[in-house]
Design goal:
2 domains; Rossmann fold; five-stranded parallel β-sheet; 342 residues; elongated; single chain
Length: 342
Amino acid sequence: MTEPPSPLRMLLSRHTKRREFITLLGGAATWPLVARGKQRRYLVGHLAIAAPTDTPPPPPANWNAFVQGLLEAGYMEGRNIEFEHRSAHDQPELFPKLASELVDLKVDVIFARGTWALAAAKNATSTTPIAGIDLEIDPVEAGLVASIARPGGNITGMFLDLSELSGKHLQLLKEIIPRTSRVAVLGDFDINAPQLRELARVARSLALETQAVEFKDATNLGGAFDAARNWGADALLVLSNPLSLAYRTRIGELAVKARLPTIYLYRAHADAGGLLSYGPDLPDMFRRCGGYVARILGGTRPADLPIERPARFEMVVNLKAAKALGITIPETILVRADEVIE
């Protein structure tokens, strides 16, 4: 004879069935949400001088940080977001065509990296949202946005204020090589025009001479170093632009060969063999830009997202490069460095 269930067992049974029902009901309630998530995949266009799929790729830490910024906001590639990469392969003249391709694909947002990419994206569309990173220009002066606080159009992003960095770079070179009186400046005369103007002003206050040497493409890189050496440069400052980053390893090699102590904006240069870098924490900027793209996908207009500046700066010293150049980095710099590469 089967013993009848106790009141306690009957109560537990009812609670168990109730939990199972609620769980089933909750799962059913989330079904449409999951289905809708699968049906709606956002498309982000990525416009850059070099894409992650290129060989060799750009510094992977930057792209990974951008993806991390999206992930922190709930956007994952393959789940609810896809990327359309367009790379100019170090040929800036291709940017207008590439930007138009992304607009024709009806991407939800264009992530534009660098001056050329931003200018091309702006010319290609006034409606598709654009989030950009640029370390060379003033976005207001360049006509990209109406103001820093309220961009007002379809462009926002992360931009760098150059004035304070120009003086800092020259001062660091003087600290490393006290006898420095002539500093060659490697850059693109168009993209880096604001930096060159600011450097000339700061150099006069430090009793330094500067000489700009142009770097337009890889074919004239060796000639640029010859020009710096022939001018009698004591040191070299490499300005920030997409090409200088793309050819960071070659630039580091040529600097050692020319016996020119060189300072850079990007830490990727120091990682690739350059002597010293001082500038914004780029992965942090890219992560924050990923967050901006996420906010745009969530419905915020670029016009309402203020332009942001770098929040963190870092100094990286490469002692291997110092040894190859035959110089000693002062202790006053080593103790301030965020990282020293042995």
